[in-house]
Amino acid sequence: MSEERGRLYYVQGIPVPETPRPNQQPGPWKETKVVGKPLPRVDAYERVSGSAVYPSDVSFPDMLYGAILRCPHPHARVKSVDAREAEKMPGIRAVITAKTPGAGIDWPHSRDMKTKLFDPRCRFEGEEVAAVAAESPYQARDAIQAMKVEYDILPFVSDERKSLESGTPSVHDGGNRVVPPTTYQRGNVEKGFSEADVVLEENYRTEGEIHTPMELHGCVAKWDGDRVTVWESTQGVYAVQARVADVLGLPLANVRVIGHYMGGAFGSKLQAGKYTIIAALLAKKSARPVKLFITREESYFCVGNRPPSNMKLKAGAKKDGTLTALDFSCIGTGGAYPAGGVSQVDFLVKDLYLCPNVRTRMTDVYINAGPARPFRAPGHPQGAWALEQMMDALAEAIHMDPVEFRLKNIATYSQTREGNPPYTTTGLAMCLSEGARAFGWEEARKKTSGSEGSGHIRRGVGMAGAMWAVGGGGPPSTVIVKLFSDGSANVNMGASDIGTGTKTVMAMVVSEELGVPLKKIQIEHADTGTTQYATPSGGSKTVPTESPAVRAASIHVKQQLLEMASKELKMGASDLVFTEGEVASWRDPSKKIKATDIPEFRRRGLVLGVGYRGPNPAGKAVNPFAAQFCEVEVNTKTGEIKVLRFLGANDSGRVMNRLTYENQVFGGITMGIGLGMTEMRILDGDQTGKIVTKNWHDYKIPTALDVPADMSCVPIDLEDTLANTTGAKGLGEPVTVPTAPAIANAVYHATGIRVTGTPINPMQLCEHLAKRRKEG
Amino acid sequence: MKKKDREKGRSGRRGVTRRGFLQLMGAGAVASASVGELGAHPAAEVVEPGEMTKVSLLINGRRHRLLIEPRWSLLFVIREKLGLTGTKVGCERGECGACTVLINGQPRYACMMLAVEAEGMEITTLEGLMRGEELGPVQQAFLEHDAFQCGYCTSGQIVAVEGLLRANPDPTLDEIRRGVSGNLCRCGAYPHIFKAVRRAAELRKG
Lengths: 776, 206
What we know:
The structure holds two protein chains of two kinds.
Chain A: H1 2-7, H2 44-49, E1 64-70, E2 76-82, H3 84-88, E3 92-97, E4 106-108, E5 114-116, E6 121-122, E7 128-134, H4 137-146, E8 148-153, E9 182-186, H5 189-195, E10 198-206, E11 218-224, E12 227-232, H6 237-248, E13 255-258, H7 274-286, E14 290-293, E15 309-317, E16 323-335, H8 347-351, E17 358-366, H9 380-397, H10 402-407, H11 428-439, H12 441-448, E18 457-467, E19 478-484, E20 489-493, H13 502-514, E21 521-525, H14 542-569, E22 576-579, E23 582-585, E24 592-594, H15 599-604, E25 606-612, E26 625-635, E27 641-651, H16 658-678, E28 710-715, H17 739-751, H18 762-775
Helix pairs in contact in A: 9-17, 13-14, 16-17
Chain B: H1 3-10, H2 18-24, H3 29-38, E1 53-59, E2 62-68, H4 74-81, E3 100-103, E4 106-109, E5 122-124, H5 137-144, H6 154-167, H7 173-179, H8 190-205
Parallel strand pairs in B: 1-5
Antiparallel strand pairs in B: 1-2, 3-4, 3-5
């Protein structure tokens, strides 16, 4: 586990402390009274009334506004920065450049690569050159425009497919290879292909995708002497604290990071950004609090992306549906710095379906573009785009239904991990079969079979399967539950609720164990000053990581209450049970006392329980699984595609809250529709190397008109007694993995056209349709 | 804006008129293409950055008298000067709808309107939909149907729906979708938003 954890993106570069094992691991819940119900969120009032204070809402009476001057070229050397005019402008209180004392600090891009915070060599459009703080954001922007920067404009590379060609400009002095290609092999693919009745080969590409969360990246920074407090829009306050302390050379205790609410991230806010450090430096220099949130345009340059992937997949299958070999390669890029350009792209090929002969080869290169950041199931939607379209094509080639073909290749153990550990549970087969049943797959497939017929409106159905490489969670996690003497409770945890309903689920766990109604549970979270250590909320691991710790803390409270009650009832604590606010003898239920009537409890004012996350089961793999089904309508004259309906079937272990669960599933499908149909980062490779899709008009994400109102959710609620003490697995990421290939397969079913590059928009589909008409 | 204030503000500041700006451009192509039309207004008003002007805004039934820069957006004034942070900032260029407010009952993007333009209009923000501490019907419906995830676009969605239902108390699914199509939700809570709008329509009828 520890070796695996070291590789996980959400803890990379963050020193993760160990937490003790919980005293006692409770058995699984038999029946639940609260957990699993469709309940509105405990913080819904705050979010719909406007009373929730997001980091970008934080304000101080003497607060300044920061802005960053960014390099307008994809590759340039900064010769000089003249800020003299800017410094004299009205309202300007601080200007910092590379030469400002204290600003010449290092910024770590990875464990092995550091550059300066304001580095003289800018390797992507939008790299930081200087910054200002002013009385108003308008004055700050004026000053940015008034700064005179001389650049040596350098040749650039903006297409990863050309990055390794000779004569291509180098992003770094050592060349454009990030690391030597990573390879994987099991069995013998050549032998596998020779055993196959059908062998297919295809190239696939997914375009770069930008997170664009609704709340921009940024923070408010405020110093009190040598201590800084940062209100940051983040997925992990402790990760931000570690980075800020490291870069500024401060003790961890002098950096307090608060992130109570945050307006979305999808992986792009797992760490502090340069903007965090710059805000702190501006605040230090001006001796005033500084709010620094980047602009929407900047969010396209410098706060991450899902990198484009260029994939090749060769696959073989027997007529009976046995998969015999998969040979996969990928060229990708994390942009101008090491950022996992091909991270996890081959995972599904290696692990999703049973296949004895697999080979993968992944090449990560540099280009002059903004660095990638983890984006909702890194690598997986890309790998699924290739693998799940290939599965569809293979099924057709062997005249088998695509669902049946997948069901023939279900793995019950992880084929990639060392020792081939079995999954604690695998609901993939049920996701496929139950999903197909609920969708009416067979009838729909017969009814639509749109590639025949003469009309220009064609219907088709498609599906895809998926899993997620992590999603089991694990230590460390520490949670404190306080039960007050009036029976109300407080939960104290460091984890962020990034919109997935974490707080609500944790309150439900406390309510389940202690019988406290949700209205009487208050949650304190995401503050390094007052809450417990937590890893960032990412990797779909927050619920499986934190909920067992919350349960353990609640049980710790319960144990102490039983001890106290045993003195009153003059019985051993082991003879007592705690239910619905009462401690009673399980032998003689008439012997009981209300918890709030226990004198010792009242004297102490509260009972404090501490819970730790126990280790994951040894020799087992914990993974969530998924399958999605959709129906589309294609206009073969205009190339327009309407997604008519979508169904998501998920095995994410126990359903903790049916309402927020469903919302996550629909949200993942919506984001997958974006990858599959609308989203595409375009770099002007021929002329300037600049990004041309840097706003929500040119870079279109799905709107209310682009998603079907007919979405349904089929939870495969398998009891997982091994994964952890609540039996929950991650959900937020697997829900977006199979969406885009399911759409592509439906479009193929409707039109007979196999679209191997994202996004399937009218422009691209029209080209395919025109080509087919020409070819007759 | 009073003329006296304007003149006072102009003295000693380097203001730029649109006409003056174009003249500064000299014989450039931009100037020659459009100076004729603009040149027809010799008394073009000077709009200076940094110049403060009085404005009176009617927000959520309450009148606010403020000194502002003419270039400040209504969004900036609402959030940063009045502290009504229920209205969110998403793009500041009329794309996402996070800053949607009602102007005379109609949903408008507060980032696309200058605060000075909003004088004399009736402005309603998310906070203005509350009934004291109680949620309004659209807010209640969003709560019940979990019509949000991170909650950041939610203010704008709720205000857009309020505007929709004021104009059309019983919208069809298609009308609902169009009604919120100017409000992006990156978390993808749209299906729940559609349900919440139907519920809100019921709640409003009482």
